[in-house]
Amino acid sequence: MALPTVTQSLPDADRRWRDIYRYLDRPGPFMAEGFEAGAAVKEFLHSIKILVVGAGGLGCELLKDLALTGFTDIHVIDMDTIDVSNLNRQFLFRASDVGKAKAEVAASFIMRRIPGVKITPYFGKIQDKDEEYYNQFTIIICGLDSVEARRWMNATIINMYDEDDPETLKPIIDGGTEGFKGQSRIILPHMTACYECSLDMQTKPTTYPMCTIANTPRLPEHCIEWASVLEWPREFPDKKLDGDDPEHIKWLLDRASTRARHYDITGVTYSLTQGVVKNIIPAIASTNAIVAASCATEAFKIATNCATPMNNYMMYVGDQGVYTYTFELQKKEDCPVCGAVAIKIQVSPSATLQDLIDLLLDRKDIQLKKPSLRTSATSLYMQAPRALQEATRPNLSKCLSELIRDGEEVTVTDESLPISIQITVRFE
Amino acid sequence: MSKRTLNDVSTPDSREEGSAGKKSKLQRENDNNDSRPVSTQAGQGPTITKAEADLYDRQIRLWGLEAQQRMRHAKILVAGVSGLSNEICKNLVLSGVGAITIISDGTVEIVDLGAQFFLRETDIGKNKAEAIAPRVQALNPRVHVEARNTAIGTLSDEFFADFAVVFLCNADLKEMLRVDNICREGGKKFYAADTAGMMGCILCDLSTHTFIETSKSSEKEDAVTTTTEKTISHPRIGEALRGKWGVPDLKALTRQQMRTLKSASDPVYFAFNVLWIFREKMGRLPTAADTDLKALFAMRDTYMNSVECDAAYLPDDMLRSFAQTAGAELSAVCAILGGFAAQDILKVLSGKDAPLDNYFAFDGTEFSGKLLKLPPPPIVMVTPAAAAPVETVDLD
Predict the structure, then answer these.
(1) pLDDT above 80 (res B380)
(2) Angle in degrees, CA B224, B228, B229, rounded to 5
(3) Which of A106, A227, A350, B262 falls between 20 and 30 A from B111, CA-CA?
(4) Which residues in chain B are closer than 8 Å to A257, comparing Cβ atoms?
(5) Do A289 and A378 share a domain, yes or no?
């Protein structure tokens, strides 16, 4: 083995990392297959590069736990700046940090606390980085706050996998929280269920029918949606509604309250208005601590094999006492990202291309926004570039049977996601 | 994007160091409650400053303004400074409780830096409580954080009078029992917790505790929300931990009885009890040395016998591993236990939702947590006939 140079460079390693080393110095009854105690596994732990995606509620806790668990080369990405409402749980930030970049402040706090640890921050979007960037990491741990970001991350990492190069197989540990609930899971590309496999498990955000909003409101939320979705564009056709602007919220509050009074509805408050417009999710310190710690523990186990990693999804519910359940989420054969088989879709022979697109938009397990479709022979409908979109637009109203054969494979892409979905279209 | 900033600034140059001990301007505001109260809707009683409403926005949306108000006035005692207590203090202070007093008579050593996030190298040699207090304070200047360089054993009963909740971290069983009794007399809520490598436990004695539970009749819009009031009664810690199991021979159990035993207990629970016995007898934690293991196994046998549980339920292998890692503190395990513990305290303070009732056993190797109700229920139902003494016939 090469000299344990990173371990040697850490000040006082044997005392600072004494407790971690207890799990790495000798074999134990819980060790996973392939565990080898000794200097090599310690060196590996201290020298690999890992990525933390997000420096918010989960990110702060992750950086703390990972750095204290022996990872010394950690990168962190976050595109946000610090807001006062973050301070009830994102404990690496102080009141004087409001307005600064989360990734940078988090990195500097951790580095001041733990000598020998290097945190490299990036203040920007995950989409700014390319495969070459992501390829340098051994493990990727996500503490993201949106379905879209997770899908992008999941698809990018899984698509990177090259059978001939085992280094391109990157485990993803994904955590999420909401109020007292949360989950952590391990994704081993092409081996376990990926994020896309479980897409239809995600709870849909609450949406209200337009007719209710426009004509028959019953809840304060309906009044707020009416103000934000209908009234605002009518009054300010050129101004985009900004949920962070108190003036905008006040305007909505005023309009929504008037409407609520008219319909005898109570409960329209500034807080609720903000919550509806910004889709605010409640968040507390303890849930983030628990879920992040679970993710960090899995990272430690994966990096060292000192114990068997989770297989593969842990659900946590803290409303009533404490409840956790760990189960094996099944991989989907026809998963658009990691599946080998195409998704089968049945349509009536008289269906048009537009009908097929509407079907795709509707399906919970696909969830695309602006799909483009093509076959191996031709483009059916492309959203971009403009010239191609105009050229293919007439296809939308054409019968599918005119455009494709029964059972033909159609490739569907969406510019917001680095994935292409294979569907087999059958006429019934 | 325009972001709101705090209107009032926290203590000057409080980059990390707060000033623990003295009340800050914000803490006095808390007490007087006279700066810029936010008018709450529907004529609700409690008022909170606008700055607090902004800071606690995300959690008020979860548990409501009234719960936040109750927390705001609560004083909590955290005894013992360890990875676990660092996490508990962090979570409580971030959530905005009224005050926390941290006590320890220990001195910071370099090994403590491994899992105690609020310690720094420059703290080595200092009293543990005094070292972490300013860092914990800096998380939220509104909370009054105090440190006392003292052992819990030397504190008089009167000392505890001020607190609503008392939390003992990594304490001796003797201390847990004594302080629990004091809390009982004074109507205080008692919690204790310990970690050992990847295992952990939390136990509590909430005496008689009343809380409300809300439930929606359905997921639809027009669902009716019902609020019910419930009351639970806890046994004292001593009574909880000395409960008998009635299963001296695992092999004699039916499958059903085995299942009942497995859901009502956990090897982690027994392991901690044995660990505490060892620590009390030897004045230290066990190591992996042969002599220690021999003593540990013997203590296990005696203890399991006394609570009528087959010693095979806590096998040698598991106990050995437990001993090997007993003194090890892992940041992630402390974070998990600290998260559960803190939020349970917050639930108890707010009077909303069911709290721990009354023991939580955590096994980090499998990430499994089990809620136990102690003392245990009868595993094996004893019928009157079986209980009658068997007549022995002298065959001589």
Answers:
(1) no
(2) 160
(3) A106
(4) none
(5) no
Using alpha carbons, list the distances in angstroms from residue A52 to A85, A168, A393, B290: 22, 17, 42, 42
Q: Do A19 and B330 touch (CB under 8 A)?
A: yes
Helix extents (H) in A49-202: 57-68, 102-113, 131-135, 147-160
- For residue A217, is it within any domain? yes
- For residue A9 the two structure tokens come to 């460079």
Question: DSSP states of B82-120 as a string?
Answer: SHHHHHHHHHHHHHT-SEEEEEE--B--GGGGGT-TT--
Whether residue B134 is preceded by a cis peptide bond, meaning omega within 30 degrees of 0, is no
Q: Which residue in the block uniquely carries the two structure tokens 């044995």?
A: B274
Whether residue B135 contacts residue B85, with contact meaning beta carbons closer than 8 Å, is answered with no
What 3-state DSSP class applies to A355?
A: helix
Say yes or no: A310 and A182 in one domain: yes
In chain B the domains, ranked by start, together with CATH numbers, are: 6-212+329-363 (3.40.50.720), 241-326 (no CATH)
d(CA B235, CA B33): 38
Average pLDDT, chain A: 91
Looking at residue B46, its pLDDT comes to 53
**A180: containing domain:** 6-201+283-327
Residues 6+ apart with CB under 8 A from A1: A39, A40, A43
Is the Cβ–Cβ distance between B201 and B272 less than 8 Å? yes
> Is A142 assigned a catalytic role?
no
Q: Note whether residue A167 is domain-resident.
A: yes
Question: How many Å apart are CA A71 and CA A61, to the nearest integer?
Answer: 14
Q: Residue A45: pLDDT above 90?
A: yes
A173 and A61: one domain? yes
The one-letter code for the residue type at B246 is: G
Q: Are A376 and A352 in contact (CB under 8 A)?
A: no
**Domains: count for chain A:** 3
Chain A CA closest to residue B316? A29
CATH code of the domain in which A236 resides: 1.10.10.520
Read off the pTM: 0.78
Q: Does B155 touch chain A (CB under 8 A)?
A: no
Summarised one tens digit per residue, pLDDT across range B29-66 is 445 443 444 433 333 445 788 889 889 999 998 888 88
Give CA–CA dist A353/B141, Å, rounded: 61
User: Across the interface, do B117 and A242 touch by the CB < 8 Å criterion?
Assistant: no
User: Considering the domain boundaries, does residue A306 fall inside one?
Assistant: yes
Residues A149 and A296 in one domain: yes
A161 and A101 belong to one structural domain: yes
Give the domain-ending residue among A269, A293, A327: A327
Residue B258 predicted with pLDDT over 80: yes
Inspect the interface and report whether the beta carbons of B2 and A326 lie closer than 8 Å: no
> Identity (one letter) of the amino acid at B372?
L
Q: Kindly state the average pLDDT of the residues A208-214.
A: 86
